[in-house]
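Worked Example 4.2. Consider the chain below.
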Amino acid sequence: MRAHKTWVPFLLTSLLSLFLVACFGGHGGGGGGGGNGGTPTPKLRVDFTGGPFTAFQHGASYALMVRNKGDAATSGTVTLVDPPTGMTVTSIAGANWTCTLATTTCSRSDSLAPGASYDPITVTGNVTVDAGGSVSATVTVTGGGAATFSGSGSIPVNASSNVSILFGQYAFLFSGFDANGAVAVTGSINVNANGKISGEEDFKDPKTQFTAQFDTNNSFCQNLPVPATGSCTLTAGGKTVHYDFVLRNNGTVARFFEDPGDGPSNAGSGILIAQEVPSPNALTSAGGFNGFFSVQFMGMDGATPAARIGIEGNIFTNLNGAIVTQNSLPSQADVNDNGTLIQPANSTTPNVTGNFTPANPTVDANGRATMTMTICTAVSSGVCNIPPLQRVLTLAVYIVAPVGSTTSNNPGRAFAIDITPVPANATSQVLSGQFFWQGNPPPTFESIVF
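Applying the procedure from the previous section yields the following structure tokens:
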């Protein structure tokens, strides 16, 4: 009977503790000593609620609640650290907590009475594992006069109930061919849980150019029988195109190609990358989309017959959205247009000029901005001094993520195509390419005008 009286309450207490802490298990000492003649101390524990999640779910969240199981109030700063695996955290916040996303930590200094709980902390992010995996976390709570508590647990990841595993907002870039010749397409799609698509795209072939919103009634994605694959139908500007895709990199990247059902004249491939749309004023704000970039474009020129053209270089954009020389480092590019070369006169002479447009340029809700760029032999006072030997680009730029992003794997990356209007009864160049941020801007990052 003595053994029975001892173990049954212990078992019930253990089960209750598991229930309160959900799937977290942990260790930590201290607390609970006052009733046995010891010094009263706080004892911190964490309740964990959330899930289950679905494969590659965007906007998944779980809650953490710190509570005091001891017999004394906390004193001093309490800090919680929660670095999960299987999820890219996009926000961590709680009322009266001071949280830092980069380190997934939160702290506060107000006292927590015995038996009381702090305001919950909500952790939100994008699941990066497929069905059968899990989002795991080890939460550590320190300070407040209590012994360190560390608990670990996991949330199961189930098969997605979404119509499409391609879910959320993605920037994309496509190049290929249609009946008119070379094709370049860039844009942003936002796929909801029903597979419906919103967003916009810029399209260009030698005879057609348009910027258009997707027809949400006729644009959608759906899964295919093979795991991690699907298809999307995009309708914009009066054109309907069908793409097949393969999801990669934990759902953050997809490779896609035009479905053969679109006919033998239509072929091409491209890439989609999970998009973090910057603020509208990103082009004129530090940490937005400015600084030192490498740029590269390929495609066909506007000659008859069309010939191949390639462009590669480095540019600086300042806080006015202008292409400039920065700290004596010039913006330069090389052009090879079917053997005709346009190159800077020397290593210190800029040969690229231009700017994001219009004045006081902004980024729309799809991450789109526009830019003019002129490449020649030399730039003087902001003007190309040899106009006959130059190439002028009017670009639609879709930003994948701002340079200051702490959650994207592609900070400072953007997709772009030339959207120069097609002349009447003529053909136009078709170019597509990318911007790649090269790191922090020079220390004296400022507005400079030639």
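Residues 2-158 form a domain with the Immunoglobulin-like fold (CATH 2.60.40.10). Residues 330 and 350 are 5 Å apart (CA to CA). Compare this with Example 4.1 before moving on.
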